[in-house]
Amino acid sequence: MHPGEPPPTTIPLRLPSPLVELADDRLDAAGVQLLVKRDDLIHPELPGNKWRKLKYNLATAAEQGHDTLLTFGGAYSNHIRATAAAGHYFDFATIGVIRGEEHLPLNLTLSYATSRGMRLTYLDRSTYRSKHTPMVVDTLRRDFGRFYLLPEGGSNPLAVRGCAELPGEIDAEFDVVCCAVGTGGTLAGISAGLGPARRAIGFSVLKGGEFLAGEVTRLQEQTYGTSFDNWHVEYGYHGGGYARTTPQLTEFADDFTERHGLSLDPIYVAKMMFGIFDLAERGAFAPGTRIVAVVTG
Length: 297
Prior knowledge:
The protein is an alpha/beta fold and 297 residues long. It is built from 11 helices and 10 strands. Helix content is 38%, strand content 17%. It has a 6-stranded mixed beta sheet with strand order 1-2-10-7-8-9. Strands 5-4-3-6 form a 4-stranded parallel beta sheet. Its EC number is 3.5.99.7.
């Protein structure tokens, strides 16, 4: 394996992920065309941006001789699930550092993670806020030994480079790419991978997520030595905050599934899709705009 190459794998990955046009009378009325990038179909256990974020990190961990991955997340974190799956398929031990106290029985996310061999440990919320400081990381190394550290949500420069490959897979004309934003890595990469005259819009899934613009800029500068001005974040579609929803959002997601046969993940994708439809109906997109919505799984 050459430096920077993703790890060799025999697991079936559906890449490029499918791109499908979605017909909807509400978008027709706004003069907007929507294409859906089905990254959720890349792999059932490593869907969407999770594979894109992990693949170069897995390669680097292997190149550096690591046999253990350690990462952080909440009790419902898709990143925790995906890291556990990656460890199972690519022969890494995995450790998940979970925000808050242990609750038994484990929820479906953490039960799945342990079924894939992940060892769970917990940090109180105050300590968790300092999770990437040397003091906390050194304590984790004393407790667990040598490991390759993946940040919360998996967003680092290697993850950004993986996500930057997504626009190159789009084999249709488009003007805008939309994605949900939790840590900023996916948006940072998509923006970097866009050609001229194209833009990216991120939809924050966090209440009080205004800090995310700074995170996207920081990730781009760390990865490329510069940042790009072809993106922005929408902050009004978080549905009350991470892993929260509202009756309006739930009604939209249920109606969307009934119309199109596509179930929307309520934590990320439903909020992005609701935002796209709302902006379209408000006239935020010029007639004729072609939008690609990334279903990140």
